[in-house]
Amino acid sequence: MTKETTVDPSEICELDIVELIDGREATIVFVPQDPTTRFEADVGSEPENWDTIGIRPSQIKRILWHAR
Description:
Layout: E1 17-20, E2 25-30, E3 39-43, E4 51-55, E5 60-65
Antiparallel strand pairs: 1-2, 1-5, 2-3, 3-4
């Protein structure tokens, strides 16, 4: 099974909410100059379990909400 990016990484902006391929929702907190590398995102359902993780564009299934 191959994992393909279904979202153009250049469309992702800081504070966008995305769905990851593992089903979690994440808020993008850092967009690198080269969006084909790695984003930083917060995952978790409440402050007690929030975690900031690095994600690759291939881990993003779709954009749920644009912050633009």
